[in-house]
Specification:
The protein has helices at about 5-15, 20-40, 45-50, 55-65, 75, 85-95, 115-130; strands at about 70-75, 100-105, 110-115. By secondary structure, the chain is mostly helical. The two termini are about 20 Å apart.
């Protein structure tokens, strides 16, 4: 089995014209620093938020609530998505658990609204749509 750094060693050698152990160690230290800066500890929480937006129904609900003038009741949301009321309730629970929606009860009715995080995510997607951000980065096929 090849070393886990064998391909990295070839990359460094291509970039520098040659590669010694010190060059490889320097690059590995740089990469470990990047991993620390990226704070991989947040990956699980962020993945949960992104996964919550990963279904058409849940994302549609977030967008509907984002453009709404205020909180909306489940009975106002259900007719706007093509799934059962039970599926809507389940989606709302997942989005609330992920921190993307607020929920409040008023008598027998439950109302939902977006959080600042959900609003920021929708706005970021809207702002970057069609701006070339979806283009594949150079060298992505390697």
């Amino acid at each position: 089995m090849a070393s886990s750094t064998e391909r990295l060693e070839r990359l460094v050698a291509d970039e520098l014209g040659d590669c010694c152990d010190a060059d490889l160690d320097d690059r590995l230290a740089e990469l470990r620093g990047l991993a620390d800066d990226a704070d991989a500890g947040t990956a699980a929480a962020d993945s949960r938020v992104l996964a919550a937006l990963g279904s058409d129904t849940r994302y549609t609900i977030v967008r509907l609530l984002h453009v709404s003038d205020g909180d909306r009741c489940v009975c106002e949301i259900a007719p706007l998505v093509d799934v059962s009321e039970s599926a809507v309730s389940h989606a709302l629970s997942e989005l609330t658990d992920a921190g993307l929606l607020t929920r409040r009860k008023d008598g027998k009715w439950r109302y939902y609204g977006t959080t600042a995080r959900a609003d920021a995510l929708v706005e970021a997607l809207d702002e970057t749509r069609g701006s070339g951000v979806d283009d594949e980065p150079e060298g992505a096929d390697e």
